[in-house]
Write a structure and sequence with these properties.
Layout: E1 5-15, H1 21-32, E2 35-40, E3 46-54, H2 55-65, E4 73-82, E5 91-93
Parallel strand pairs: 2-5
Antiparallel strand pairs: 1-3, 1-4, 2-3
Amino acid sequence: MAPELVRAHLLVRGRVQGVFFRANMRNLALELGVKGWVRNLPDGRSVEAVLEGERSAVERVICWALRGPPLARVRELHVEFQDYRGEFDTFEIRY
């Protein structure tokens, strides 16, 4: 049986900029084979990401995002699962 492929849109709020949140998420995603992107939002306190891959790997990245790296203080995490599109070749930080 083939693994279930999913797509998730994340919005993370709190102290998540300037604490290596994006770099750490990218490293974990690449390690787990998750594709997509992550970026800071202009409000200075939010990060947005789109993740695609096997459900178990995407869920691991989502669980990590609940806490983030050591200096982060995540206050809110919104997750919306969407239809898988398979549109990414890797996981990147967007600017």
